[in-house]
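Full entry
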Amino acid sequence: MSRRLEINEVSPRDGLQMERNNVPTESKIAFIDALSACGFARIEVTSYTSPKAIPTLADAEAVMAGIERVAGVKYTALVPNLRGMERAVAGRPDEINLVMSASETHNRANLRMTRAQSLATLKEVMRAAEGADLPCNVSLSTAFGCPFDGEVDPQEVIALARALADAGAAGITVCDTTGMAYPTQVASLCEQLQQAVPGVPLTIHLHNTRGMGLANALAAFNAGIDRFDGASGGLGGCPYAPGASGNVSTEELVHMFDAIGCRTGVGLDALLAVVGSMSDLVGRPVSSQLAQAGPRLRRFAPPSWLAEKFPQ
């Protein structure tokens, strides 16, 4: 039997937070509702970050309240701290996503804290979330390299993953924040993490900054990973990571895994229709190679002259 994968869509949060044009609340809700019909395991709806820090997501409460929830889809939100968690509880996400960096300098730039301070804060949030019956996934940014510190020691990533698992993390997402990862590195770290935190679901979050997003996804898949983040249209980036470009595009992930016989649950035609509307959503051209070329078995009418030259 083919493997069943979980595809998590992050463009409503990770993607829209980077857009220069502010997307109206109603348009965000319509976008998420369209994604809900595609068959995703999870959709990251928004972020309960300070509106001053991420003004494009200042409408988190309104968006979470306005979406039409579909059975079988988990709706998640990013939470930076205890105050964000308290805001999130009212919105009833199915899961919250916490974040810290595997590298020291990026953590200080992104979160204004040392890693030790972040770890202590996340443990506090997880304790409070447990009381609210709210599962917590934790994303480890810069796990495959840092734009400030360079190489990141895999043992430091593993140590953080163990500490978070011991603190009660419902899952851990391993992030290639600026597209620095390469396939053998991805395979090695994924294998080590599965041994280090057995029973804790691991998700791989990839960026396509250097064109290796799909290759890295396949390496993670071959190493046993079954959960993948993607952003429709390849949106996204990181405001505190120089050189970061968009995420690996969800439609290309789905197309690749469909082609090798995996069951993603995501309807590619429906997803491509959503991608086709995204340029209007964000007010700039949005596309991917797959959106331009179509699926691998897309067919075209043959040249009209063929019927005359080669009659039946």
